[in-house]
Structures are given as C-alpha cells and as structure tokens.
C-alpha cells in the first residue's frame, strides 16, 4: 500500500529525496500529533512563568508530628457533648466593617506610596486588623485577614474571591480605602469552627 | 449512641496538590492570552471557580477560600499581606504567583479544617 503511494507521488519535477519524506510523515502521524501538542503547549506558555510561595502550617517537621500526635490523642479522649448547634454570637459584618474602615483611615491618613514602608505596613496592618477582630469576641470563629496595596499608575486590577463554607454562620467583609497615590483593600473572612 | 470515627485529616493540608491544581487552572485560563479589559472579569471568575471545584473534588473535610488578583503588567507597586487566626496543625494556605508578558496573577488558597 505504501509502496504504491510512494510510486504515485513521484512527480518528474520533484527530487527523489523529497518523495520518501512525505509518506514517512504520514506513517508517523500519531507520534507527530503528540509532539505537536507538547510544542503548542510550550509555545503558549513560553512567555509565562509561575512561582509558588506558601507558608506551611508548621515550620519544622517535628512540630507537625507533635501536633498530629496531640490531635489523635484528643480524638481518643471523649469530650462531653456541648449540644451547641450554632455560635453564641453570629459574626456581625457591619460592625466589623465600620471598625476596619476606621483603622484604615487612621493608619493611612497621610501616607504616600513607598515601597519599603509599605511592605512593613501591610503586615502590621494585617496583624492589627486581626487583633481588633478578635477583640470583638466572636467565639469559636477562625479569621483570615488579607490586605492589598495597589499603587495607582493607571493600570487595571481585578480581584475575585470564591469560597466554600457554611452560609449560615460564615461571612466576610471587604473595606476599601482610596488615596491619591494608592488604593488599600482589606478583606476579612470569618469561619465558624464547629 | 453511635460513635463517629473520624479518620484524621489525611496528612493535614497538602500544599503540593493544591498548587498543582491552581497552576493548571491558571494556565488553562490565561495561558497564551494577553490582557483584555473586556474579558478580565470572566477570566478571574473562571480561574477561581475552576480551582474551587477541583479543590472540592479532593474530597477532604475542608472549607476553602480562593482569592485571585489579576493585574495588567506595567510599572506599579503591589503589596499584599495576610494574617490568619486558626488551628495551625490542620489549616493551611498556598499562594501561586503566575505571570506572562502582559499580566500578573496571584492566587491565594486558604483551607480551614472542619472538625467533625
């Protein structure tokens, strides 16, 4: 079958070297497809790089083991059932929002955008907001605070969040503070720990 | 009274799986694309939703929060910080920073354990 194909493709103008190339390419179609796919993928992602940064819950393996031992020991201990189906006080988003707005205003009143200052300031602000939210006294809640500072230079930014949690008791707050040179965004998520 | 035996959180929070999932989602949505103001909403929404569905498929008893910020690439300053109050033995976070010629993307995943 292939020989016939080869014979059929020989045209007087073509050099003899070209004719074996084309039917060979047809024969290896499947391998070529795999290569093509990988190449296309490499081409698409050629100009993109990615980087992963994370904080693992324990800094050291030994600490992690201790925690797990404690946890499994705890599982064997039987605690009396508290019969509590819901938090004592539900997370109130509006009061937290007004308090966080106040903090942002105070801290960022006359601050101009500056690289070094802001890297410390963002951490400090995140810790401060966390303390304040804890002071509210919502028991058995876990909190996550995220602070973003974006310099205003005419570029666009889009921030999106999605979550999977218990809609009845978990909630979130977003506070924005805008100045001439930058925008500050603070997100607070509250999750009830059953 | 039935006793519910909880199998322990399968080695806690596994960062490697999560960052693979997130990286694949971002590559799939933004790979080879240039910044486009009309589509940016759609992109951020789909990155976050896809990551979330894949995370849920892991089948662990966790609550997840996924945040994604996509910024057009230019000369600008950007700082982000997060502070968390949770159980450090079972909860964790993972941040994936992805960039190409025209945009930067930062995806943050927070996982909080559900104590059954």
TrEMBL record, chain A:
Signal peptide (residue range): none
CDD domains from the UniProt entry: DLC-like_TCTEX1D3
Segments for region (Disordered): 1-28
Coiled-coil regions listed in the entry: none
Compositionally biased spans, kind Low complexity: 11-22
Domain of life: Eukaryota
Recorded family membership: Belongs to the dynein light chain Tctex-type family.
Name of the protein this chain belongs to: Tctex1 domain-containing protein 3 isoform X1
Source organism per UniProt: Galeopterus variegatus (Malayan flying lemur)
TrEMBL record, chain B:
Name of the protein: Dynein light chain Tctex-type 3
Keywords assigned by UniProt, alphabetized: Cell cycle, Cell division, Centromere, Chromosome, Cytoplasm, Cytoskeleton, Dynein, Kinetochore, Microtubule, Mitosis, Motor protein, Nitration, Nucleus, Transport
Organism of provenance: Galeopterus variegatus
Family, as annotated: Belongs to the dynein light chain Tctex-type family.
Domain of life assignment: Eukaryota
Entry annotated with the keyword Transport: yes
Known partners and oligomeric status: Homodimer. The cytoplasmic dynein 1 complex consists of two catalytic heavy chains (HCs) and a number of non-catalytic subunits presented by intermediate chains (ICs), light intermediate chains (LICs) and light chains (LCs); the composition seems to vary in respect to the IC, LIC and LC composition. The heavy chain homodimer serves as a scaffold for the probable homodimeric assembly of the respective non-catalytic subunits. The ICs and LICs bind directly to the HC dimer and the LCs assemble on the IC dimer. DYNLT1 and DYNLT3 compete for association with dynein IC (DYNC1I1 or DYNC1I2).
Described function: Acts as one of several non-catalytic accessory components of the cytoplasmic dynein 1 complex that are thought to be involved in linking dynein to cargos and to adapter proteins that regulate dynein function. Cytoplasmic dynein 1 acts as a motor for the intracellular retrograde motility of vesicles and organelles along microtubules. Probably binds BUB3 as part of transport cargo. Required for the efficient progression through mitosis.
Coarse class of the protein's main subcellular location: nucleus
Compartments where found: Chromosome, Centromere, Kinetochore; Cytoplasm, Cytoskeleton; Nucleus
């Amino acid at each position: 079958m292939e020989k016939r194909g080869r014979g059929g493709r020989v045209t007087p103008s073509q050099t003899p070297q070209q004719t074996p190339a084309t039917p060979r390419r047809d024969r290896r179609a499947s391998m070529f497809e795999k290569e093509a796919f990988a190449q296309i993928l490499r081409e698409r992602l050629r100009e993109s790089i990615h980087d992963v940064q994370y904080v693992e819950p324990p800094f050291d393996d030994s600490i992690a083991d201790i925690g797990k031992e404690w946890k499994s020991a705890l599982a064997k201990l039987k605690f009396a059932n508290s019969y509590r189906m819901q938090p004592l006080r539900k997370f109130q988003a509006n009061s937290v929002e007004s308090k966080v707005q106040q903090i942002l205003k105070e801290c960022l009143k006359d601050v101009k955008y500056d690289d070094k200052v802001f890297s410390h300031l963002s951490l400090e602000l995140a810790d401060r907001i966390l303390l304040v939210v804890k002071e509210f006294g919502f028991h058995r809640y876990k909190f996550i605070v995220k602070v973003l500072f974006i310099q205003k230079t005419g570029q666009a930014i889009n921030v999106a969040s999605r979550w999977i949690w218990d809609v009845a008791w978990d909630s979130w707050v977003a506070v924005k503070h805008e100045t001439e040179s930058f925008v500050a965004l603070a997100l607070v998520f509250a999750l009830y720990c059953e | 009274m039935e006793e519910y035996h909880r199998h322990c959180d399968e080695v806690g929070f596994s960062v490697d799986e999560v960052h693979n999932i997130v990286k694949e989602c971002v590559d799939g949505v933004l790979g080879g694309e240039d910044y486009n103001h009309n589509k940016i909403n759609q992109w951020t929404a789909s990155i976050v939703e896809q990551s979330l569905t894949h995370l849920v498929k892991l089948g662990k008893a966790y609550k997840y929060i996924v945040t994604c910020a996509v910024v057009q690439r230019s000369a600008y300053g950007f700082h982000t910080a997060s502070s968390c109050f949770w159980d450090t033995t079972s909860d964790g976070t993972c941040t994936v920073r992805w960039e190409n010629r025209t945009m930067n993307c930062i995806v943050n995943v927070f996982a909080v354990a559900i104590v059954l």
